[in-house]
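Figure-free illustration: sequence to structure, shown twice.
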Amino acid sequence: MRQRLWLSASLCAGLSAVVLFAASRPAGAQTTRRDEGQAHGAKVDKEGRDEVDGVEADEAVRGRGLAAPSPASEPTGTPGATATPQPSPAPSPEADFSEGSEAETYDEGGGARLSVEPALGLAPEEGADDANDAARDALRRGFDWRPATEQALLFLAVQHGYALTQPKTRRDLSGPFFGDYFRSVKSLGKWADGGKFFTNYVAHPMQGSLLGFVYVQNDPRGKSARFGRGGAYWRSRLKAVAWSAAWSTQFEIGPVSQASIGNVGLHGKQTWIDLVVTPLGGAVWLVAEDALDRFAVRAVESRTDNILLKIAARVLLNPTRTGANLLRFKKPWHRDRPSL
């Protein structure tokens, strides 16, 4: 029995290492490209600042030596009187140099107006610009394989940890590991496994939905897509269903599954119902939670200032999204949108 446990744990650790290594390779390349892009952006920003500093230095020299000619003024007084040019008002030291304002200068040759960039300064919108840059960078990176895989493996560990608390799982830990595993998988045949309705048609769809949300919360395009808004939303949810199907199939008949650790197939429990209902029922459950989050949860949030009521609405109306949040060590009521 101990050898069986050690072999199961070794397989799980080996699978985790292989998947994480494969996921880290593209992540490392993306990080290198992102660092190169940031370095290039810093270089361009430095050159732009140097150019603006040069313009300001020229203005200072002209202020000490040459007077800036003013544009010709319209004649005043009686007809035939000589028009007296009016001097251009000097810029005030207290001029507003916030973002969006422009400081105007004149060329020494003939008063032609020069185009000057907005004065540099820390504006309130700068933080928002940084957030937008981060969002665009995430969209370029695409799906984050490594954290998504880590979260799915954590959920797999929770599932098997719970299964090992059951006597029927521990009963079959003895015996040849691979022999019992292959015999269990080969027994896959009938539809129903004799389980309870709640287990087959509620718990398993919730499992599929939770795995789907693991995909969504690691997909920059998917988590920003609103329910029912064009093709982007539905494409992301179809990908989430594929992700859920892959991981739920692994849990049923994969190398670290109920077939390999619990040998459920040896007792007539290796059936099609879990392989089919988990991802497909999970897709329906996931979309239903998205609809509830958009219409019901947001309606509650817009009608009350009670923070506890808002938290309860988010958690109770989106239970599998809540579970997916816990897998990434976020608050259960976390949303990838403005906070409460």
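We now fold a second protein in the same way, so the two outputs can be compared directly.
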Amino acid sequence: MKTDPMEGLGSLGALDAPAPPASAKLRDAVGAMKPARTRTRFGAFAIVCLVGLGWPAFTLTQAPFRRDLSSLPMAWVVLGAALWAAAFALSLWSALVPRRGDVLPAVGTAGRVALGAMAALLVFTALWMPSVPGLSLRPADLRVSAMESSWGCAKIVLEAAIPVVLFGFLTLRRVLPMGGRVAGIALGAAGGAIGGLALHFVCPLATPGHVLLGHVGAMVAASAAGALLLGVLLDRA
């Protein structure tokens, strides 16, 4: 039996009927809407920066300064502090703040900035690590190995990195569906750098091996941990 191909299309005429009027509840909801407050390019950076500075600031107020600090070359003290501070600020900035005209942070750039910061600190420590006889300490003076002495400082660096990574995750969880692990490298490096900045003034051990392992090496470990942690958190967000 043949059927008319136009049969049944008459019901489509109902689609031309006017839409029913909006309910009073819907009109009230639309009328109550207000423009959403947009996030600034610097707001997230400022918040995470303040959070990251909190723990090292507490460390500096509670722990005594290294006893050789006033006898070390002032150029080394200032340059070292500037490198640690710049590693923190630049890594955090690149992870959280989009470039002008962009909406999302450039995670590839953030990863390169963090790696460059770690490389600069590694070279600085390897080439210039002054000590003051009678004031600067070595691991042997404490009857521990370089590895054993480094663990205490590494814990400080990793503890400083945790709040930076976690608050960075809270900032990025809605805007980084991809590339989270690379952003985690920069956040972990930033947190590790601010911990290293505190150690620059309070750690009494002045040997390249200790600083490379316990300070710079811990920053590298913090960046790797940040990549793993942020990747897991973003996958579950």
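Summary for the second example: Residues 79 and 142 are 28 Å apart (CA to CA).
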